[in-house]
Amino acid sequence: MSELVTGEAVALELRPARLPSRALAVLLDLVVAVAVYVAVTIAIVVSTASLDEAAQTALSIATFVLVLVGGPIAVETLSHGRSLGKMACGLRVVRDDGGPIRFRHALVRGLIGVIEILMTFGVVACIASFVSARGRRLGDVFAGTLVVRERIPVARTGFVPPPPPWLAGRFSGLDLSAVPDGLWLAVRQYLTRMQQLDPQVGWSMAERLASDLAERTGVPVPQGVPPGAYLAAVVHERQSREARRAFGSGPASSTAPAAEAAPVTEAAPAADAASAAEMPSAAGAASGAYGPPVVPHGAAVESSGGARPEQSQEVRAGDRPGTGFVPPA
């Protein structure tokens, strides 16, 4: 990776293209350019057969310059650094600051490319690419450009592996409130990249992070638990708590709907009816004031002298808070 700093002081991490991919892209461009040059030359020779030899020579030179020199310049300018060969190989020409190239950049690259690619059969370009730390040829050096790779293999970064099954739920009682965000970030970065680290280095990092995490939680790492598995289990526990808190599926929130959904029978105790009558209504609690007392349906049925069950169901289905009034049978 090559770090470039833009004019806005933003660091860009780009992967410069190396010699094999660049050589393949140039070869494809040359094949297309030579094919176009041969076709145009044949058409000009056929159409200018009546001209003298000097005119035909001038047309041949003009065709060479326009097709083999002006063609690549025009293509890179219009496509912002992506010729046919570069598109096939997943490459792009950019400026040193990571921005798209313009006509002057393509012009300098094209003119110098005639010397180091066409006239020397690519020998100068290969030597310059080997010498340069970022694989730049002379045209890139004088134009202030860089050829980078656009298609990069996608790595599984950002994926935290799940803990072993035998550690699921083992750390549900840990107090994670004292763990700082910086330590969580370091643990997550280690877990997402531990497959790319040297085994010995990864083990030492896991031990250090596990000791820091155990010091913050106040509970030592259990014996026989690898540090990497311990970190994955604790991170999984934190994610589970955040998910329960965000989606309301925790233990505290799961009991409330069950209590509300419990059916009210006519045999409810009088003490429960009296305590429910003193509770504020839901609408009044939302507005900051208390509403009229809510009389439970069981008490209303008892006071109505044997109301029918379907009437109590209608009262329970209402959206407004109960007033204690039940329509006559």
From TrEMBL:
GO CC terms of this entry: membrane
Record's bilayer topology term: Multi-pass membrane protein
RDD domain span: 17-144
Biased composition (Low complexity): 246-269, 282-292
Annotated InterPro entries: RDD (IPR010432)
Membrane-spanning ranges: 24-46, 58-78, 111-131
Keyword list, A-Z: Membrane, Transmembrane, Transmembrane helix
Domain of life: Bacteria
Pfam families according to UniProt: RDD (PF06271)
Region ranges (Disordered): 242-269, 282-329
Subcellular location: Membrane
Principal location: membrane
Protein name: RDD domain-containing protein
Organism: Streptomyces swartbergensis
Lineage: Bacteria, Bacillati, Actinomycetota, Actinomycetes, Kitasatosporales
